[in-house]
Amino acid sequence: MSQRSGKSDPLTVYPTDSSDARPYDVWIQPGLLAEAGSFIGEACPAHRYAVISDSQVSDVYAKPLLAALASAGLEAELFKFAAGEWNKTREVWSEVTNGLLRAGVGRDAAIIALGGGVVGDLAGFIAATYMRGIRIAQIPTSLLAMVDSSVGGKTGLDTPAGKNLVGAFHQPSVVLVDPMLLRTLPNHQLAAGLSEALKHGLITDAEYFGQTRDQLDLIFGRDSDALCRLVRRSIEIKADVVSQDTHEVGYRRILNFGHTIAHALETVSGYGLLHGEAVAIGLWAEAAIGETLGVTAEGTAEEIRDVLVEARLPVELDSEIETEKFFEALSRDKKRLGDEARYSLISEIGRVAGSRESGWTQEVSNETVQEVLFG
Ligand SMILES: NC(=O)c1ccc[n+]([C@@H]2O[C@H](COP(=O)([O-])OP(=O)(O)OC[C@H]3O[C@@H](n4cnc5c(N)ncnc54)[C@H](O)[C@@H]3O)[C@@H](O)[C@H]2O)c1
User: Fold this and answer.
1) Element containing residue 127 per DSSP (H, E)
2) Cα of 356 to ligand 1 centre, how many Å?
3) 112: exposed, middle or buried (C-beta count within 10 Å: 0-12, 13-18, 19+)?
4) What is the pLDDT of residues 38-70, one digit of tens each?
């Protein structure tokens, strides 16, 4: 690594499952895209690379990435699909996979995911399933993918029945985060990523939550130092949680705070709500549910709501969301245990509720959810 211009050390994620998943590094550095070739060549060696990206991201960043790979002597080809959550499907998985097969991509190849969470999840699932699994390097380009989805090895596809219902765990070989790429990300997408960063603070680190709130202007101004700090702390938190429970059988469930409501909202909105926007509504709603149950300190939901508004995130439910359809979507949630809907809640800002014994989740009745969300 000596000839690189890297200033900071990488974060290392240690998956703890018994499969062949190995520890991997997450590098966070402005300007990293131009150096992607040497990092990928070392941490994710392959004879050939399939760069998977969406139509919007590839327009801006495929050329510089392919140039960076070529300058490191790596052979690569671009495979793209139309941007948008509604394309994170088995149909698009099949189209892209067929493209790889037609191009003669073999087991000695690796995938590079260049894009937001949709690209990361889809390309990750392709990597998990292609020829029974090939390596993948993640280059997240949205804030949400940088602070959250590129790390942890969850891959998946949406189905008409709900979000992420088909998927696999497949850890990346390396993650390269270049915060400069966020300069072209629209503000509402940046805000959507902030909701996951705020969640990280809410579940484990009140100081980080407060610091993020205080630095919102710098973050929206794309200040490089503020973005590096934000991404680094979020990944530290996520990596720590994932290292304790790679396959989400216990502690990792705390990352689902806000997400039980969010996934149902996303599904019923026909993906009109961005994932991060749905998470924002989910964060305050699940805090309010916690207050109703006496699990969460009083006033927490209001405080969260104020910060979400400052972070330019929605907190109101769209009046067109139908109660019945919402509960139908909720009933298909993966986090159910038998007939029970399980929620990961917080006891106060920076502290998750529950314990190992409770599986870090609690049962919440639909009546309580209805009262909080629909009045
Ligand atoms: N695997 C996980 O652990 C995990 C965690 C959280 C979320 N997710 C998933 O992530 C997805 C949401 O990710 P997302 O918010 O990144 O959505 P996305 O991938 O759709 O990206 C949002 C939009 O921004 C564009 N874009 C991305 N980077 C850009 C850039 N630098 N400049 C300009 N435009 C850019 C994309 O083309 C897209 O149109 C959801 O499907 C969610 O389920 C997965």
Assistant:
1) helix 117-129
2) 31
3) buried
4) 999 999 999 999 999 999 999 999 999 999 999
Whole domain around residue 362: which residue ranges? 187-374
Distance from the alpha carbon of residue 183 to the mean position of ligand 1, in angstroms: 15
Best residue for ligand 1 mutational test, from 121, 176, 271 (most atoms within 8 Å of Cβ) = 121
Residue whose CA lies nearest to ligand 1 atom number 10: 117
Q: Is 144 in the pocket of ligand 1 (CB under 6 A)?
A: yes
For the chain, the domain total comes to 2
Q: Are 323 and 356 members of one domain?
A: yes
Q: What is the pLDDT of residues 285-305, one digit of tens each?
A: 999 999 999 999 999 999 999
Q: The whole model's pTM is what?
A: 0.94
Q: Identify whether the C-beta of residue 230 lies closer than 8 Å to the C-beta of residue 212.
A: yes
CATH for 65: 3.40.50.1970
**Do strands 136-140 and 174-177 pair parallel, antiparallel, or not at all (unpaired)?**
parallel
